[in-house]
Description:
By secondary structure, the protein is mainly beta. The protein has strands at residues 4-7, 10-12, 18-24, 33-39, 46-52, 55-58, 66-71, 76-81, 90-97, 102-104, 108-112. Helix content is 0%, strand content 53%.
Amino acid sequence: QVQLVESGGGLVQPGGSLRLSCAASTTISSFYTMAWHRQAPGKQRELVARIDSGGSTYADSVKGRFTISRDSAKNTMYLQMDTLEPEDTAVYYCRAATWRTDYWGQGTQVTVSS
Length: 114
């Protein structure tokens, strides 16, 4: 089975930046889409950004501040988060999809606070 492992979360001040990584146990070229989701306490999980061969899309709340990317050589997907706001505080999850199956990482905590 495919394993996805997120890393890079932590505590950052408002206005700061953070870069999340999602390392896959297999070549990420096998995924037709990869995405970042997040879930804040008391809220439902939401789609933050996704990327496929056609490009990338973002939630309105993060558009212009976050950038999703993939590095096939490292089998890793990234989420560059700039101008972070307290509202960005959540557990961030990596998702990868093949034609048949969705895979999820364990999540990494991002806390934006002064």
